[in-house]
Amino acid sequence: MTRVLVTPRSMTQHDLDDLEELAPLRERGFELISGPPGRLPSEDELTDLVRGVDGWIAGVETITATVLDNADRLRVISRNGVGADAIDERAAKARGVQILLARGSNARGVAELTLGLLLTAVRDIPAAVTAMRAARWERTLGTEVADHTVGIVGYGSIGRIVADLVTAIGGRVLAHDAYATVPAELAVPDLSALFRCSTVVTLHTPPPADGTPLVTAELIAAMRPGSVLINTARAGLIDEAAALQALESGRLRSYAVDAFASEPPELTPLLTHPHTIMTPHLGGYTDASVRRATVGAVDGLLSVLS
């Protein structure tokens, strides 16, 4: 019997037999094996779960070479998302394990959260909520989206939707992508120019392959005083010390983040700063995004196992 491991938290919080999106696997007689209910599995748990498994629908959990060493039958890892940086790709390739991604499945969810974080930051909504709950009547003069130039780093499926949403409510958009084609009217030739010309910068790109931050102290220093930086992509994109210094100096009005090195994250000085806005990896966590991602992951799995 073909055995499939299922570990995304959005799926393991339910009985796998109740998930309609997994019906194509059940109909083919595949045995479905659930990870720990509603949480990320540990390396030790994955090491045990992966034995005797042919396919794996994976989430954001870290899949190490140690885990893959115990994957005696594994042929494919099909992620219900768009990134593979949590998987030791070299180890997977060495063992003949294919890695498939559900590209574009969460694009609208992440883009809409980005817009929400932008609005939250420019109106300083968290401070207003905190003051009201403490029975204080305190108001901060906000700005409107039409007052801002939004620089988009990464013009893939998410970046394009962000551009459409911001433009629709009156903001000016600039974009830079080292790989994808950006429309001429939006294109900025390099990151330095984009950071200099933008009052809001939002990140929708993978981190550099060498592990160094893409957003350096120099780039942050080029931003105008009172700017906003939004990161719904990867924690490693940001020089955290530089971002913290920019918040303390007022160079950054807000840092909004939905991406963390570990989940839940260690609460560093950057994350606990009063002008940091944190959300617990909500970008692709919508009904529609989860359904699309699950369908994409199942289709990818079947393309190999069938």
UniProtKB/TrEMBL annotation:
Gene Ontology terms describing biological process: amino acid biosynthetic process
Residue ranges of domain D-isomer specific 2-hydroxyacid dehydrogenase NAD-binding in the record: 115-283
GO molecular function: NAD binding; oxidoreductase activity, acting on the CH-OH group of donors, NAD or NADP as acceptor
Domain D-isomer specific 2-hydroxyacid dehydrogenase catalytic: from-to ranges: 41-302
UniProt KW NAD keyword: yes
Pfam families, per database record: 2-Hacid_dh, 2-Hacid_dh_C
UniProt entry keywords in alphabetical sequence: Amino-acid biosynthesis, NAD, Oxidoreductase
Similarity annotation: Belongs to the D-isomer specific 2-hydroxyacid dehydrogenase family.
Protein name per the record: D-3-phosphoglycerate dehydrogenase
Species of origin: Microlunatus soli
